[in-house]
């Protein structure tokens, strides 16, 4: 199957190079086979959404960036340091780390208005001081 997402392979290999990551490293972090990672890097296959999320987490980037070349929510994430502090995918994560990633994934699945509401609500909760950690 030819890569129908133009540039996914280029952005994937670019992010791997930025992080001095080899295909074997990506396989180890994601649990993907070497042949599948090789197909994605060569543009011969397109990953499913589930696999793209694993890859994005391992590369500390977003699926939007890998697919489109930009992240439409980048400013919102960087303002709250969510994406920058996200721990790359690993099968050996604690339950708390998986919960954090689930929240981030759910947040990213909201449209821009939904994300703005969530961020506004979080700011309100923090401003009360009642829910501080």
If you had to describe this structure to a student in words, what would you say it looks like?
The protein is mostly helical and 133 residues long. It has one domain: 434 Repressor (Amino-terminal Domain) (Orthogonal Bundle). It is built from nine helices and no strands. It has helices at residues 8-18, 23-30, 34-42, 49-58, 63-68, 74-80, 82-85, 95-109, 112-128. Helix 2 crosses helix 3. It starts with 7 loop residues before the first helix and ends in a 5-residue tail after the last helix. Mean pLDDT is 77; it is low at 73-94.
* Helix share, percent: 55-70%
Cα radius of gyration in angstroms:
16 Å
Q: Write the CATH architecture name.
A: Orthogonal Bundle
How much β-strand is present in the residues? under 5%
What is the residue-mean pLDDT, rounded to a whole number?
77
Report the CATH topology name: 434 Repressor (Amino-terminal Domain)
Number of helical regions: 9
Could you state the order of secondary-structure elements as H and E? HHHHHHHHH
User: According to CATH, what is the class?
Assistant: Mainly Alpha
Give a count of the beta strands, DSSP E runs of length 2 or more. Answer: 0
Uncertain regions spanning at least 5 consecutive residues = 73-94
Largest sheet: none
Structural class estimated from helices and strands = mainly alpha
How do the helices and strands line up, and which of them pair or pack?
Blueprint: H1 8-18, H2 23-30, H3 34-42, H4 49-58, H5 63-68, H6 74-80, H7 82-85, H8 95-109, H9 112-128
Helix pairs in contact: 2-3
């Amino acid at each position: 199957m030819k890569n129908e997402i133009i540039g996914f392979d280029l952005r994937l290999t670019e992010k791997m190079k930025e992080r001095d990551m080899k295909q074997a490293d990506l396989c180890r972090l994601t649990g993907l086979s070497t042949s599948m990672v090789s197909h994605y890097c060569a543009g011969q296959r397109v990953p499913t959404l589930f696999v793209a999320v694993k890859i994005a987490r391992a590369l500390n980037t977003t699926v939007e960036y890998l697919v489109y070349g930009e992240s439409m929510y980048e400013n919102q994430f960087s303002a709250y340091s969510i994406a920058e502090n996200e721990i790359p995918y690993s099968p050996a994560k604690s339950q708390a780390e998986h919960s954090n990633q689930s929240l981030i994934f759910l947040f990213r699945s909201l449209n821009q208005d939904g994300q703005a509401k969530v961020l506004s609500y979080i700011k309100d909760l923090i401003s009360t001081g009642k829910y501080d950690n």
